[in-house]
Description:
Layout: H1 12-23, H2 27-34, H3 38-52, E1 57-60, E2 63-66, H4 68-95, E3 99-106, H5 108-111, H6 114-124, E4 128-135, H7 138-147, E5 152-156, E6 164-173, E7 175-179, E8 190-191, H8 192-198, E9 200-203, H9 208-220, E10 228-230, H10 233-241, E11 246-249, H11 251-256, E12 262-268, E13 272-280, H12 287-303
Parallel strand pairs: 3-4, 3-5, 8-12, 9-10, 9-11
Antiparallel strand pairs: 1-2, 5-13, 6-13, 7-11, 7-12
Helix pairs in contact: 1-2, 1-3, 1-4, 2-3, 6-12
Amino acid sequence: MTEIEQKPDISLRLLEIFGAMMRCETTVEAAEQLGISQPAVSNGIRQLENQLGITLFERLHRRLEPTEEATLLFEEVRPVFSMLRSFSARARSIRHGTSGRLRVMSTPPLGNTVAPVALARFLKDRPDVSVAYDVRRLEHVIEAVQSGAADVGLAIALERHPSVNVEILSRTHMVALVPKDHPVASRQEVTVSDLSEHGFIGLEAESRMGQMLRDAFDREGIDYEPRVEVRYCATAAVLAGAGVGAAVVDPYSAAYQSSEGLVQLPFQPPREVAAVLITRKGIPRSRLLHGFIAELKRAAGDVF
Length: 304
């Protein structure tokens, strides 16, 4: 039976040493380029020659000159060195959080205020990062994060959820948006009694913000009877700006819809609003995501 010749198993490390020797004039220079000792380079070349059964370098005038066979082999493996450099550079970028793709989804209050500020800062020094950005309803944000379709979600008035991780970014309070010609526009604050007396734009009780507003009325023992009722704080802010009446909304929606025709006042009794980030359970955060979250926290502090 004819013995099948065993092909040599060439390691990438030996190819790296070979490539360095082809680019450098001495083993000392190759060693410095690779960050290893000069004997390690010499031993690597001898090991490669033994495995290939080919003489790769000949000593001439105290230097190792590549043989014709070495030159031919170097041309064959040159693309491998290019791929290794590209691989190492990409790994470095990923490790430092300067390369990759980030998927962000937010509800409108943060998606129109804090998140754009954070995103602009985040992308400024990261030319190799791309972002998929979307503004959706809360249930869509939670579903996207839970399924892995989004790396991070942003929302307000969500303290906890059984399916995802919820982390507080900042805490603020609901505010009153009042047309400048409204009877309470000159006051220091707006109370539930003020709203009840002059009529107001309410939020649907099915929404989280609507529940918080209704609770404020219940606490004061006053019936919750808005003249106009809407689902979203952004809609309430738009109607207030049009002169329909006073509205109580989250401060992010108030900031987004601010206009010269509106006065923003504190609302009593205080209703706390938490801005939160949502991440998937059991999945470690990438350096890219850590970098974006750091900018989110900074932006959340800067907005108010």
